Amino acid sequence: MSLVKAKKHLGQHFLTDKNIAQKIVNSLVHTDKYKKVLEVGPGMGVLSDFLLQKQEFETYLIDIDTESFEFLHKQYPTLGDRLINADFLALNFKDIFLEPFAIIGNFPYNISSQILFKILENRNQVPEVVGMFQKEVAERCVAKASSKEYGILSVFLQAYYKCEYLFTVKAGVFNPPPKVLSAVIRLSRNQTPSLDCDEKLFWQVVKAGFNQRRKTLGNALSGVIKKEKQGDDAVWALRAERLTVKDFVDLTNLIHERNSQE
User: Residues annotated in the binding site for S-adenosyl-L-methionine, as ranges?
Assistant: First the structure.
């Protein structure tokens, strides 16, 4: 069977180490919360081989690359419509999954943040995610307040998921090797069905705060709440990176309250 050629424009780096592939698959631990798993960008099936051995869930594969799709179709002829040739970012999850499902993958690094935001939009349907990312992105996902890696992605993910850095992966186990280190993380949906604030405003506040992260929140958020309504709360003198998820929830409620006042 001819092998699939890695395509630069799709950000493909095929994992070749089977031990690491097995370790990634075994990192799915909340299997009591779902019965289906979607692998994103399976390439030549190094993770898929281990996923399909698992009896506790049903595996689906999605790849935008037609060459990969055809290779996998020959490799796993019994998959049928569980092998999908489509763009994950354009997928309507509810067209395929009516119940919760997990997501796993050696994600293309050029769209990894978009993948995470897509998962966040569908957070109530995705109880667990295990994924390989560029190490820098993985560190941002798990970063704590007051660290330089902490940012928009850290706050949004940690608002709804427990984020764990599992292990680092060297470039030599990929074909072609990426120019960066990689890392595997696990996201486990937390017990927060929704935040204790106006969630739309929360997203606005977090984005505005970090988009001008060198400015104090008083200045960075002047487009969300006018200076004259801010008052003398200590929070306005801080920068966004100092605030935990709970602090951002409290700040959102404060802004909502002040903006509601005439």
Answer: 13, 15, 41, 63, 87, 106
246-257 per-position pLDDT tens digit: 999 999 999 999
Look at residue 78 in the predicted model and tell me its pLDDT.
94
Using the predicted structure, report yes or no on whether residue 35 has a pLDDT greater than 80: yes
The answer on 181 and 204 residing in a single domain is: no
| DSSP state at residue 163 | E
Distance, CA of 40 to chain centre: 12
Cβ atoms of residues 164 and 183 within 8 Å: no
- Nearest 5°: the CA angle 191, 197, 199 is 85
SS3 151: coil
Domain that holds residue 108: 8-189
Does the pTM exceed 0.85? yes
Collapsed DSSP state (helix, strand, coil) of residue 64: coil
pLDDT of 34 reads 98
Q: Tell me: do 18 and 113 sit in the same domain.
A: yes
Could you tell me if 182 and 137 lie in one domain?
yes
CATH number (domain holding residue 140): 3.40.50.150
Per the annotation, binding residues are 13, 15, 41, 63, 87, 106
Q: Do 42 and 48 touch, CB atoms closer than 8 A?
A: yes
Cα separation of 41 and 93, whole Å?
16
Close Cβ partners of 6 (under 8 Å, ≥ 6 residues apart): 12, 13, 14, 43, 175, 176
Q: Mind listing the pLDDT tens digit for each residue in 66-96?
A: 888 999 999 999 999 999 999 999 999 999 9
